[in-house]
């Protein structure tokens, strides 16, 4: 998986999966543009790449705003002239709350980042790749895009939508040399899963973590680096004719059934 001479664009690149993937792309020779609304952490990711001798720049953006998305695309082209790999990753978890009680503003916020943000990224990166007649896109969905999770209506709906977008777009652009896939992480050892633990068991988040990890066949959370490895594979020539697919990385949890929040709460 050699990305020397290629340009990788990563949204949500300040922390977690996005940061790990940006670093992985750079470690394999890519020039990297990191996008996030967290300026300090985003600059930290780009700075870390430069300290290791790589080329990177950071762009502050709100992925729900078309002008900001157009700006990060323009900044990438101004700096490096093309976009070879797009990791369309920015996302938020929202609240854990039954649908009958779910806050409307929170629902809109989750759908805005997780669905509109992904759509806008596709809308403004695809024309670049169509002009190039080449490119790979990996969208971040979730195992929540494959099964229901009680208490997470917005997140589950948003990730089902990401998988739908992935399938739709892949069919539109396959003949133009562009591949579009999705990764579907289970719980990953990042801020997001620990925030969910705290919501579910504010009195004892560690107990929620222990119980949920015990319910995963592998016995642990996935690491951000393990997700990054799959993203790089799907962005590389090694994945050849793979497009329109969703790749599950969850330690076997989905294969054995059950819902995340239920496992944590028991």
Describe the structure.
- This protein has 266 residues and is α/β, with parallel strands linked by helices.
- The chain has a single domain, classed as NAD(P)-binding Rossmann-like Domain (Rossmann fold).
- Helix content is 48%, strand content 14%.
- It has nine helices and seven strands, in the order βαβαβαβαβαβαααβα.
- The chain has a seven-stranded parallel β-sheet with strand order 3-2-1-4-5-6-7, with helices on both faces.
- Strand 4, helix 4 and strand 5 form a beta-alpha-beta unit.
- Helix 1 packs across helix 8, helix 3 runs parallel beside helix 4 and helix 6 packs across helix 7.
- The protein is globular, with a radius of gyration of 18 Å.
Q: What keywords describe this structure?
A:
single chain, alpha/beta, 48% helix, 7-stranded parallel sheet, 266 residues, Rossmann fold
